[in-house]
Design a protein that fits this description.
Elements: E1 22-25, E2 30-33, E3 36-37, H1 38-44, H2 47-56, H3 62-73, H4 80-88, H5 95-107, H6 118-143, H7 157-166, H8 172-185, H9 192-201, H10 207-219, H11 226-235, H12 240-252, H13 271-287, H14 291-307, H15 313-323, H16 331-352
Antiparallel strand pairs: 1-2, 2-3
Helix pairs in contact: 2-16, 3-6, 4-5, 4-6, 5-6, 5-10, 6-7, 6-16, 7-8, 8-13, 8-15, 8-16, 9-10, 9-16, 10-16, 11-15, 12-14, 13-15
Length: 367
């Protein structure tokens, strides 16, 4: 007896995998990471702690945290051959393409790339996470014909990442705020890039191939790029009134306003955005200029009033990155860098309990 076939455009709501990594809990309106509320994690822990949680299954002990920090520092450097490839990239290369190329090249330096064991994949994940800031920053710099900048092993992960971006050692507050943003971007259940990574991994492709595909997925403006779009939008206005006028105009023209709406937080602000909003206030206080905060708050009220929509993480992460001195084209590559911890966890889980993804189609052509 033939069962009825159901076509679901975009696989919306279709359960595609079993996972113990994360859940967008629509009933409780929470993002759960291995049994922990992501917002609670952001208030008590650092990004490296969540890396350990994602890859090892539990939060680190103090000694494990110290070892993880050293492990990442040991892997900050990348082979000279990767720099050589960056020099060959055309100036019009998109920053995400530069990042993707660096990941692909790095695969060639893997000694035993066909080993899919959990031990081998964990080792690769830590190595990869350590090198990713160096790849992300220098692919961008060398595309723009700037000299490479080298990591500082005396700095912890997030402080070193921000130093490489700006060229200046960050203050303790700046490093903490940037670290918090990485933590909030670290994992988000099954968006397109994570699904892409798992589909590729399901063929028994290696972790580098899966992550390369995830970068390509995140490059698309229906998935990544929202934080960049928010900042470009904010840069179009010079005052609160101009920003409100700009939003009204976009709404009248039925344009999508980036930075608003979330599949879990339907009727309130994404709590990740609340965390970044407080970080924005701290940076504005430090600089003695609250214009960006005031513009964002005005936009937040306008969108709630006019559309019943609330800010998501990207809305407040964008001005935070701007005040940290991060170039706008690097916002999405940084998003990917943060998300890599979750992506590696998903690839490992897929390899451990694999089933090849092989969906069917609803045929609409002639027979």
């Amino acid at each position: 007896m033939k069962t009825e076939e159901t076509y679901v455009p975009g696989l919306a709501g279709v359960i595609a995998a079993e996972t113990s990594i994360s859940l967008l809990d629509t009933e409780q309106e929470k993002i759960i990471i291995r049994g922990h509320d992501l917002i609670d994690l952001s208030k008590k822990y650092q990004y490296a702690d969540v890396v350990h949680l994602l890859l090892e299954g539990q939060l680190p002990t103090p000694s494990e945290r110290t070892r993880l920090s050293e492990r990442l520092k040991e892997n900050y450097d990348i082979p000279q051959g990767v720099f050589n490839v960056f020099q060959l990239l055309p100036e019009q290369t998109h920053p995400m393409d530069g990042q993707r190329t660096g990941i692909s090249v790095l695969a060639g330096y893997e000694d035993n790339i066909d080993d899919r064991s959990i031990e081998a994949n964990k080792k690769r994940a830590y190595q990869f996470l350590g090198k990713l800031p160096t790849i992300t920053v220098n692919s961008y710099r060398m595309i723009n014909r700037e000299k490479p900048v080298y990591p500082r092993p005396d700095l912890d992960y997030s402080a070193n990442f921000l130093y490489m971006i700006t060229g200046e050692e960050p203050t303790k507050q700046e490093a903490e705020i940037f670290d918090r943003s990485l933590l909030l971007y670290s994992e988000h259940e099954m968006p397109n890039s994570t699904f892409t990574a798992r589909v590729i991994a399901s063929t028994q492709s290696d972790i580098y191939g899966a992550l390369t595909g995830a970068v390509a997925s995140l490059k698309g403006n229906l998935h990544g790029g929202a934080n960049e779009a928010v900042m470009y939008m904010l840069r179009e206005a010079n005052s609160v009134g101009e920003f409100e006028e700009l939003l009204y105009k976009k709404l009248q023209q039925k344009e999508k306003i980036m930075g608003f709406g979330h599949r879990v937080y339907m009727n309130k602000m994404d709590p990740r955005a609340l965390v970044m909003k407080e970080s924005l206030k701290q940076l504005c206080d430090q600089k003695g200029d609250h214009l960006l905060l005031e513009m964002c708050e005005a936009g937040e009220k306008l969108m709630e009033r006019e559309k019943g929509l609330y800010p998501n993480l990207d809305y407040y992460a964008a001005p935070v990155y701007w005040l940290l001195g991060i170039p706008i084209p690097l916002y999405t590559p940084i998003f990917f860098s943060a998300r890599t911890a979750g992506l590696c966890a998903h690839v490992m889980e897929q390899h451990e309990n694999n089933r090849l993804f092989r969906p069917r189609v609803h045929y609409t052509g002639e027979r």
